[in-house]
Amino acid sequence: MLQRTYVRDALVIGAATGVFGVAFGVLATTTGFSVAQAGALSVLVFTGASQFAAVSVAGAGGDPITALGSALLLGARNAFYGMTMSAHVKGSLLKRAVAAQLTIDESAALAIGQRKPEDIEPAFWAAGLSVFVFWNLGTLAGALGGDAIGHPSALGLDAAFPAGFIALVMPALRTRAGRVAAVSGLAIAMVALPVTRPGLPIVLAAVGALVAHATVKTEPPAESP
Amino acid sequence: MSWTVILLLAAGCFLEKAAGMLIFGRFNATGRFRSVGALLPPALLAALIGLQTYGDGRDPLFDTRLAGVVAGGMAAWRNAPFWLVVVIAGATTALLRAL
Protein backbone atom coordinates (compact mmCIF):
# COMPACT_ATOMS: atom_id res chain seq x y z
CA MET A 1 0.00 0.00 0.00
CA LEU A 2 2.86 2.38 0.81
CA GLN A 3 4.24 2.10 -2.73
CA ARG A 4 1.26 4.16 -3.90
CA THR A 5 2.53 7.72 -4.10
CA TYR A 6 -0.79 9.20 -3.01
CA VAL A 7 -0.77 7.14 0.21
CA ARG A 8 2.63 8.51 1.15
CA ASP A 9 1.56 12.04 0.20
CA ALA A 10 -1.63 11.63 2.25
CA LEU A 11 0.44 10.67 5.30
CA VAL A 12 2.68 13.73 4.83
CA ILE A 13 -0.37 16.00 4.63
CA GLY A 14 -1.94 14.27 7.61
CA ALA A 15 1.15 14.63 9.79
CA ALA A 16 1.43 18.33 8.92
CA THR A 17 -2.24 19.00 9.72
CA GLY A 18 -1.73 17.09 12.98
CA VAL A 19 0.64 19.83 14.16
CA PHE A 20 -2.03 22.43 13.40
CA GLY A 21 -4.47 20.16 15.24
CA VAL A 22 -2.28 20.47 18.34
CA ALA A 23 -2.34 24.26 17.92
CA PHE A 24 -6.12 24.12 17.63
CA GLY A 25 -6.48 21.98 20.74
CA VAL A 26 -4.29 24.38 22.71
CA LEU A 27 -6.19 27.45 21.45
CA ALA A 28 -9.60 25.88 22.14
CA THR A 29 -8.83 24.87 25.72
CA THR A 30 -7.06 28.14 26.55
CA THR A 31 -10.10 30.12 25.32
CA GLY A 32 -12.52 28.29 27.59
CA PHE A 33 -13.55 25.17 25.70
CA SER A 34 -13.53 21.81 27.45
CA VAL A 35 -11.42 18.95 26.10
CA ALA A 36 -14.63 17.19 25.00
CA GLN A 37 -15.79 20.30 23.15
CA ALA A 38 -12.44 20.73 21.38
CA GLY A 39 -12.56 17.06 20.35
CA ALA A 40 -16.17 17.31 19.21
CA LEU A 41 -15.34 20.34 17.06
CA SER A 42 -12.56 18.45 15.29
CA VAL A 43 -14.60 15.28 14.73
CA LEU A 44 -17.92 16.89 13.80
CA VAL A 45 -17.00 20.22 12.19
CA PHE A 46 -13.74 18.92 10.67
CA THR A 47 -12.73 21.92 8.63
CA GLY A 48 -9.76 23.70 10.15
CA ALA A 49 -10.25 27.30 9.08
CA SER A 50 -13.85 27.32 10.35
CA GLN A 51 -12.84 25.78 13.67
CA PHE A 52 -10.07 28.32 14.27
CA ALA A 53 -12.47 31.14 13.35
CA ALA A 54 -15.27 29.95 15.65
CA VAL A 55 -12.92 29.47 18.59
CA SER A 56 -11.18 32.82 18.01
CA VAL A 57 -14.47 34.72 17.82
CA ALA A 58 -15.79 32.99 20.95
CA GLY A 59 -12.48 33.57 22.73
CA ALA A 60 -12.62 37.29 21.91
CA GLY A 61 -16.05 37.46 23.52
CA GLY A 62 -18.01 37.48 20.23
CA ASP A 63 -21.62 36.32 20.22
CA PRO A 64 -22.54 32.83 18.92
CA ILE A 65 -24.18 34.17 15.74
CA THR A 66 -20.96 35.95 14.73
CA ALA A 67 -18.95 32.82 15.49
CA LEU A 68 -21.32 30.69 13.39
CA GLY A 69 -21.33 33.21 10.53
CA SER A 70 -17.55 33.48 10.37
CA ALA A 71 -17.11 29.72 10.48
CA LEU A 72 -19.76 29.01 7.83
CA LEU A 73 -18.29 31.64 5.51
CA LEU A 74 -14.90 29.93 5.75
CA GLY A 75 -16.47 26.49 5.18
CA ALA A 76 -18.51 27.57 2.15
CA ARG A 77 -15.71 26.67 -0.26
CA ASN A 78 -16.14 23.01 0.70
CA ALA A 79 -19.41 23.05 -1.28
CA PHE A 80 -17.38 23.69 -4.43
CA TYR A 81 -14.89 20.94 -3.61
CA GLY A 82 -17.85 18.63 -3.02
CA MET A 83 -19.25 19.54 -6.40
CA THR A 84 -15.96 18.58 -8.05
CA MET A 85 -15.55 15.37 -6.08
CA SER A 86 -19.14 14.24 -6.72
CA ALA A 87 -18.02 13.44 -10.26
CA HIS A 88 -15.54 10.91 -8.86
CA VAL A 89 -17.11 9.50 -5.68
CA LYS A 90 -19.93 7.13 -6.57
CA GLY A 91 -21.88 4.69 -4.44
CA SER A 92 -24.40 4.55 -1.63
CA LEU A 93 -25.80 7.60 0.13
CA LEU A 94 -23.90 6.64 3.31
CA LYS A 95 -20.61 6.39 1.44
CA ARG A 96 -21.15 9.77 -0.19
CA ALA A 97 -22.19 11.32 3.14
CA VAL A 98 -18.92 10.11 4.70
CA ALA A 99 -17.08 11.48 1.66
CA ALA A 100 -18.87 14.81 2.19
CA GLN A 101 -17.59 15.03 5.78
CA LEU A 102 -14.04 14.40 4.49
CA THR A 103 -14.31 17.10 1.79
CA ILE A 104 -11.74 19.77 2.69
CA ASP A 105 -8.88 21.69 1.02
CA GLU A 106 -6.39 18.86 1.52
CA SER A 107 -8.49 15.94 0.22
CA ALA A 108 -9.71 17.89 -2.82
CA ALA A 109 -6.17 19.07 -3.57
CA LEU A 110 -4.56 15.63 -3.38
CA ALA A 111 -7.39 14.23 -5.54
CA ILE A 112 -6.97 16.75 -8.34
CA GLY A 113 -3.19 16.49 -8.04
CA GLN A 114 -3.29 12.95 -9.45
CA ARG A 115 -2.04 12.42 -12.98
CA LYS A 116 -3.97 9.17 -13.50
CA PRO A 117 -7.79 9.54 -13.47
CA GLU A 118 -8.19 6.18 -11.65
CA ASP A 119 -6.12 7.52 -8.72
CA ILE A 120 -8.42 10.52 -8.09
CA GLU A 121 -10.97 8.80 -5.84
CA PRO A 122 -8.50 6.70 -3.76
CA ALA A 123 -6.29 9.78 -3.30
CA PHE A 124 -9.32 11.70 -2.01
CA TRP A 125 -10.09 8.98 0.57
CA ALA A 126 -6.44 8.59 1.56
CA ALA A 127 -6.01 12.31 2.24
CA GLY A 128 -9.42 12.72 3.88
CA LEU A 129 -8.93 9.78 6.27
CA SER A 130 -5.29 10.61 7.02
CA VAL A 131 -6.10 14.24 7.85
CA PHE A 132 -9.11 13.12 9.92
CA VAL A 133 -6.98 10.81 12.07
CA PHE A 134 -4.02 13.19 12.53
CA TRP A 135 -6.19 16.30 12.99
CA ASN A 136 -8.18 14.65 15.76
CA LEU A 137 -5.16 13.08 17.46
CA GLY A 138 -3.47 16.48 17.32
CA THR A 139 -6.51 18.25 18.74
CA LEU A 140 -6.69 15.78 21.62
CA ALA A 141 -2.95 16.09 22.35
CA GLY A 142 -3.17 19.88 22.30
CA ALA A 143 -6.33 19.98 24.41
CA LEU A 144 -4.76 17.69 27.00
CA GLY A 145 -1.80 20.04 27.29
CA GLY A 146 0.70 18.24 25.08
CA ASP A 147 2.14 21.35 23.44
CA ALA A 148 5.64 19.85 23.28
CA ILE A 149 5.63 19.33 19.52
CA GLY A 150 6.33 23.00 18.83
CA HIS A 151 4.39 25.81 17.22
CA PRO A 152 3.47 25.34 13.52
CA SER A 153 5.28 28.53 12.51
CA ALA A 154 8.53 27.51 14.24
CA LEU A 155 8.51 24.41 12.03
CA GLY A 156 7.81 26.50 8.93
CA LEU A 157 4.48 24.76 8.40
CA ASP A 158 2.77 28.01 7.44
CA ALA A 159 5.04 27.94 4.36
CA ALA A 160 4.86 24.18 3.86
CA PHE A 161 1.07 24.25 3.33
CA PRO A 162 0.87 26.77 0.48
CA ALA A 163 3.96 25.16 -1.12
CA GLY A 164 2.35 21.72 -0.87
CA PHE A 165 -0.81 23.08 -2.50
CA ILE A 166 1.34 24.50 -5.33
CA ALA A 167 2.71 21.00 -5.94
CA LEU A 168 -0.79 19.52 -5.99
CA VAL A 169 -2.24 22.17 -8.30
CA MET A 170 0.70 21.80 -10.76
CA PRO A 171 -0.93 19.09 -12.96
CA ALA A 172 -4.00 21.31 -13.41
CA LEU A 173 -1.72 24.12 -14.58
CA ARG A 174 -0.60 22.01 -17.51
CA THR A 175 -3.88 22.73 -19.32
CA ARG A 176 -4.67 26.21 -20.59
CA ALA A 177 -8.10 26.19 -18.93
CA GLY A 178 -6.51 25.21 -15.60
CA ARG A 179 -4.00 28.06 -15.84
CA VAL A 180 -6.73 30.61 -16.64
CA ALA A 181 -8.84 29.31 -13.71
CA ALA A 182 -5.89 29.52 -11.29
CA VAL A 183 -4.71 32.97 -12.36
CA SER A 184 -8.23 34.47 -12.33
CA GLY A 185 -9.09 32.76 -9.03
CA LEU A 186 -5.93 34.12 -7.41
CA ALA A 187 -6.51 37.63 -8.82
CA ILE A 188 -10.15 37.73 -7.67
CA ALA A 189 -9.22 36.57 -4.15
CA MET A 190 -6.40 39.09 -3.70
CA VAL A 191 -8.60 41.97 -4.93
CA ALA A 192 -11.47 40.84 -2.67
CA LEU A 193 -9.23 40.29 0.39
CA PRO A 194 -9.13 43.87 1.75
CA VAL A 195 -12.85 44.56 1.16
CA THR A 196 -14.63 41.32 2.18
CA ARG A 197 -14.96 39.17 5.27
CA PRO A 198 -12.60 36.19 5.71
CA GLY A 199 -13.77 33.23 3.66
CA LEU A 200 -15.47 35.22 0.91
CA PRO A 201 -12.33 35.78 -1.21
CA ILE A 202 -12.02 32.02 -1.80
CA VAL A 203 -15.75 31.65 -2.54
CA LEU A 204 -15.52 34.50 -5.06
CA ALA A 205 -12.46 32.82 -6.61
CA ALA A 206 -14.86 30.16 -7.93
CA VAL A 207 -15.78 32.72 -10.60
CA GLY A 208 -12.30 31.98 -11.98
CA ALA A 209 -13.56 28.52 -13.01
CA LEU A 210 -16.45 30.14 -14.93
CA VAL A 211 -14.05 32.60 -16.56
CA ALA A 212 -11.83 29.72 -17.70
CA HIS A 213 -14.82 27.72 -18.91
CA ALA A 214 -16.17 30.66 -20.90
CA THR A 215 -12.93 31.86 -22.45
CA VAL A 216 -10.89 28.74 -23.14
CA LYS A 217 -11.96 26.33 -25.83
CA THR A 218 -12.47 22.99 -24.11
CA GLU A 219 -9.62 20.57 -24.58
CA PRO A 220 -10.45 16.97 -25.42
CA PRO A 221 -11.59 15.25 -22.21
CA ALA A 222 -9.11 12.85 -20.62
CA GLU A 223 -11.81 10.25 -20.03
CA SER A 224 -15.08 9.47 -21.73
CA PRO A 225 -18.16 10.01 -19.54
CA MET B 1 -19.44 28.34 23.62
CA SER B 2 -22.37 26.08 24.35
CA TRP B 3 -22.89 22.56 23.03
CA THR B 4 -25.88 23.88 21.06
CA VAL B 5 -23.61 26.23 19.10
CA ILE B 6 -21.09 23.43 18.51
CA LEU B 7 -23.79 21.15 17.12
CA LEU B 8 -25.24 23.94 14.94
CA LEU B 9 -21.75 24.62 13.63
CA ALA B 10 -21.22 20.93 12.89
CA ALA B 11 -24.57 20.70 11.08
CA GLY B 12 -23.91 23.86 9.07
CA CYS B 13 -20.42 22.82 7.98
CA PHE B 14 -21.64 19.35 7.04
CA LEU B 15 -24.53 20.79 4.99
CA GLU B 16 -22.06 22.97 3.07
CA LYS B 17 -19.94 19.93 2.19
CA ALA B 18 -22.99 17.77 1.44
CA ALA B 19 -24.54 20.47 -0.77
CA GLY B 20 -21.71 19.97 -3.21
CA MET B 21 -21.26 16.24 -2.88
CA LEU B 22 -24.89 15.10 -2.72
CA ILE B 23 -26.98 17.74 -4.50
CA PHE B 24 -24.68 18.96 -7.27
CA GLY B 25 -23.62 15.38 -7.83
CA ARG B 26 -26.96 14.83 -9.53
CA PHE B 27 -26.12 17.38 -12.23
CA ASN B 28 -22.58 16.28 -12.69
CA ALA B 29 -23.42 13.95 -15.56
CA THR B 30 -23.86 16.88 -17.94
CA GLY B 31 -20.78 18.13 -19.74
CA ARG B 32 -20.94 21.77 -18.67
CA PHE B 33 -21.24 21.06 -14.93
CA ARG B 34 -18.43 18.54 -15.18
CA SER B 35 -16.18 20.94 -17.02
CA VAL B 36 -16.75 23.84 -14.62
CA GLY B 37 -16.51 21.44 -11.67
CA ALA B 38 -13.07 20.28 -12.82
CA LEU B 39 -11.88 23.91 -13.02
CA LEU B 40 -13.07 24.84 -9.50
CA PRO B 41 -10.13 23.32 -7.53
CA PRO B 42 -7.39 25.15 -9.46
CA ALA B 43 -9.31 28.43 -9.05
CA LEU B 44 -9.98 27.91 -5.32
CA LEU B 45 -6.59 26.42 -4.46
CA ALA B 46 -4.71 29.21 -6.26
CA ALA B 47 -6.70 31.66 -4.14
CA LEU B 48 -5.94 29.65 -1.01
CA ILE B 49 -2.22 29.59 -1.82
CA GLY B 50 -2.24 33.37 -2.25
CA LEU B 51 -4.17 34.02 0.95
CA GLN B 52 -2.17 31.57 3.07
CA THR B 53 1.08 33.10 1.87
CA TYR B 54 0.01 36.72 2.21
CA GLY B 55 -1.62 36.34 5.61
CA ASP B 56 -3.24 39.51 6.90
CA GLY B 57 -0.62 41.79 5.36
CA ARG B 58 0.77 42.92 8.73
CA ASP B 59 2.22 39.58 9.75
CA PRO B 60 5.91 39.93 10.78
CA LEU B 61 6.39 36.31 9.66
CA PHE B 62 5.41 37.14 6.06
CA ASP B 63 8.95 37.54 4.65
CA THR B 64 10.28 34.23 5.94
CA ARG B 65 7.07 32.48 4.88
CA LEU B 66 7.27 33.89 1.35
CA ALA B 67 10.87 32.66 1.05
CA GLY B 68 9.78 29.12 1.95
CA VAL B 69 6.80 29.17 -0.41
CA VAL B 70 8.99 30.40 -3.29
CA ALA B 71 11.61 27.71 -2.58
CA GLY B 72 8.95 24.99 -2.39
CA GLY B 73 7.16 26.37 -5.43
CA MET B 74 10.35 26.19 -7.48
CA ALA B 75 10.83 22.57 -6.39
CA ALA B 76 7.24 21.82 -7.41
CA TRP B 77 7.83 23.50 -10.76
CA ARG B 78 10.82 21.15 -11.26
CA ASN B 79 8.50 18.19 -10.50
CA ALA B 80 10.06 17.35 -7.13
CA PRO B 81 8.05 14.75 -5.18
CA PHE B 82 5.37 16.17 -2.90
CA TRP B 83 7.14 15.37 0.40
CA LEU B 84 10.29 17.10 -0.82
CA VAL B 85 8.35 20.25 -1.76
CA VAL B 86 6.83 20.33 1.72
CA VAL B 87 10.20 19.73 3.43
CA ILE B 88 12.05 22.35 1.32
CA ALA B 89 9.40 24.99 2.03
CA GLY B 90 9.15 24.20 5.74
CA ALA B 91 12.91 23.89 6.28
CA THR B 92 13.70 27.12 4.41
CA THR B 93 11.23 29.10 6.50
CA ALA B 94 12.13 27.40 9.80
CA LEU B 95 15.87 27.98 9.22
CA LEU B 96 15.39 31.65 8.36
CA ARG B 97 13.34 32.09 11.54
CA ALA B 98 15.91 30.29 13.68
CA LEU B 99 18.71 32.62 12.48
Offer a concise description of the structure.
Chain A is mainly alpha-helical and 225 residues long. Chain A has helices at residues 5-30, 35-45, 48-59, 64-75, 77-85, 93-101, 105-112, 120-143, 157-169, 176-192, 200-204, 207-215.
State the shape of chain A.
Answer: globular
What is the CA-CA span between the terminal residues of chain A?
28 Å
- Per DSSP, the total helix count of chain B is 4
**What's the count of strands of chain B?**
0
What share of the residues of chain B does DSSP label as strand, in percent?
A: under 5%
SSE order of chain A, one letter for each helix or strand: HHHHHHHHHHHH
Could you walk me through the main structural features you see in this protein, from its secondary elements to its overall organization?
The complex is a heterodimer of chains A (about 220) and B (about 100). Chain A is mainly α and about 220 residues long. Chain A has a domain at about 5-150. Chain A contains 12 helices and no strands. Chain B is mainly alpha-helical and about 100 residues long. Chain B folds into 2 domains: about 1-55; about 55-100. Chain B has 4 helices and no strands. In chain B, helix 3 (about 60-75) runs antiparallel to helix 4. At the A-B interface, helix 1, helix 2, helix 3, helix 4 and helix 5 of A face helix 1, helix 2, helix 3 and helix 4 of B.
Topology:
The complex is a heterodimer of chains A (225) and B (99).
Chain A: H1 5-30, H2 35-45, H3 48-59, H4 64-75, H5 77-85, H6 93-101, H7 105-112, H8 120-143, H9 157-169, H10 176-192, H11 200-204, H12 207-215
Chain B: H1 3-23, H2 31-54, H3 62-77, H4 82-98
Helix pairs in contact in B: 3-4
What are the main properties of this structure?
heterodimer, A: 225 residues, mainly alpha, 12 helices, B: 99 residues, 4 helices, flat
